[in-house]
Amino acid sequence: VISDKELREIKENLPELPEDKEKRYITEIGLEESEAKIISSSKTMANMFEESSSKTDDAKLVAKWLVGDISALLNKDNIDIDESNLTPENFGKLIKRITDNTISGKIAKSVLEEVWESGSDVDEIIETKGLVQIQDESLLEEIANKVIDSNPDQVAAYKGGKDKLFGFFVGQIMKETKGKANPKSVNDILKKLLN
Question: Which of 166, 162, 163 is nearest to 183 (CA)?
Fold first, then answer.
């Protein structure tokens, strides 16, 4: 026979169960149910999520990367997250570099692949490979003007209603900057120049 006191002590010392974690992720952090379910179903994934989230301001972005790119890498290599070269510190740093606009999401994918292979520090990879995103509005505007001047037919077609060509101009600027332009800035500049 187990007393009420013993039951209470057992309950208090139990670790948070996956269903409770999932509920907490949805209500407190605002994750999608599917993300919360995937992350809470694995103890190592939940640990990575919580530790990495504590190093950044964007837990939702941490979840998005865990459920997306990182899960894909785990499946490809058929390993658990704690067997990978990715540490919570390094992953938190990667998310921070996306949110502070040091690198774009696209560049972050290549940084993640390198971390995955070598375990190198995120900031070292960004620094040594010169991956810092171009934020200089005047430089981006100069490049945008060059792209617009070089493509008069596309400009005319865009102004004639072919809205899909907007992506063409974004692509040309990204090509010119080797993918280092801040996508949001590029979109804003192009909207201003093309309208």
Answer: 166
- Answer for the pair 115, 85: CB distance below 8 angstroms, yes or no: yes
Report d(CA 105, CA 27) in Å as an integer: 26
CA distance 189 to 135: 12
Q: What confidence score (pLDDT) does residue 12 get? A: 81
Residue 25 has pLDDT above 90, yes or no: yes
Residue 13: pLDDT band (50, 70, 90) is: confident
pLDDT, one tens digit per residue, over 93-151 is: 999 999 998 998 889 999 999 999 999 999 999 999 988 988 888 999 999 999 999 99
Label residue 172 exposed, middle or buried (CB < 10 Å: 0-12, 13-18, 19+). buried
Dig out the tokens for 126 from the structure.
């960004």
SS (H, E, C) the chain: CCCHHHHHHHHHHCCCCHHHHHHHHHHHHCCCHHHHHHHHCCHHHHHHHHHHHCCCCCHHHHHHHHHHHHHHHHHHHCCCHHHCCCCHHHHHHHHHHHHCCCCCHHHHHHHHHHHHHHCCCHHHHHHHCCCCCECCHHHHHHHHHHHHHHCHHHHHHHHCCCCCHHHHHHHHHHHHCCCCECHHHHHHHHHHHHC
Q: What is the pLDDT of residue 14?
A: 78
pTM value is: 0.75
